[in-house]
Amino acid sequence: MRAWVRSRRGPACSALELATGFPTPAVPTGSSPDVLIRVSHVSLQFNTEMLMKTLPSFSFISPWIPEIELSGEVVAAGEGAPAEVRDPGTHVVAFQKVPGPMIMGHGVLAEYVRLPSSQVARIDATVNMASASGINCSGSAALKMVRTAGVREGHTVLVNGASGSVGSVLVQLCKLRGAKVVGVASGGNEAMVRDLGVDEFIDYHKHNPLPAYLAHQYGDKPFDFVLDCVGTQALFVNSPAYLKTEGAVVNIGVLEGIGVTARNMLFNSWLPTWLGGVPRRYIMFSTPPARDDTVYLVHLIEEGRVRIPVDSVFDMEDAILAYERIATKRARGKVVVKVRSD
Asked: What gap in Å lies between CA 57 and CA 7, rounded to an integer?
């Protein structure tokens, strides 16, 4: 089979090579709970290239394959797999666990993958496979943000990065819960974000600096929650001007870099107000995919209540171009690689 493999440390353009003749995973047999999947599409993650630039390349580690979420069809499954993902030809979405297997390079940007059935969920064959490939990560992250904040009917929330892969799902989940949603994105993405259901739209280019505009526009009607998919420290620092006292900023973004974000998280969470701390709650957490979340989101998608926006789809041979697209930070939804050639 073909698979993209990291040969050295560095950006995707220099670190990845398309390997041919790569060993296809073994077919599960006996009581194995594993599922062998023919991959249809793989959704790329923004932080994959950061890992490729950061993690050293060790010769004693098996070839390092990137990415963690996919859509595809069942080729074979062991008797220990649930009946709904056992029949050949069944459409599924699946994910690789993080951080362990992903750090070790057991990714899914390949023509076939073998995964435990606990990481695989059936999806209706009518669902677009490019869109389906982005359910696990973006969907799970958005769902965790909504649940952590406790968004419900009557709340007003700000979604920063509303046109991104997580923000676009987050807007829809907040609306399903009956909240009023104010979405922040660039003006060029206004039509897309409004189509997702936001009640109000803010162009951060037009209203810069954003915190000053929020204070002026929403100071007398503050938000219940600020849901930040970008990672803008100024949004939290200035939040008392537009966020309710009992509210919180929930952040999953690392726009300012891992090191700076880690430092900010420490100070934002623990610095007391008498030492200059911000008198508002700050919440940040990891958002690894989970099968229960995937099953819940699959039902919403099959019912037409949520959709996973796709920015662009690249052929398997053009995966490097896909990484270049996601690196622009301007993608509207998921950037996807089409693995299957038919």
From this structure: 7
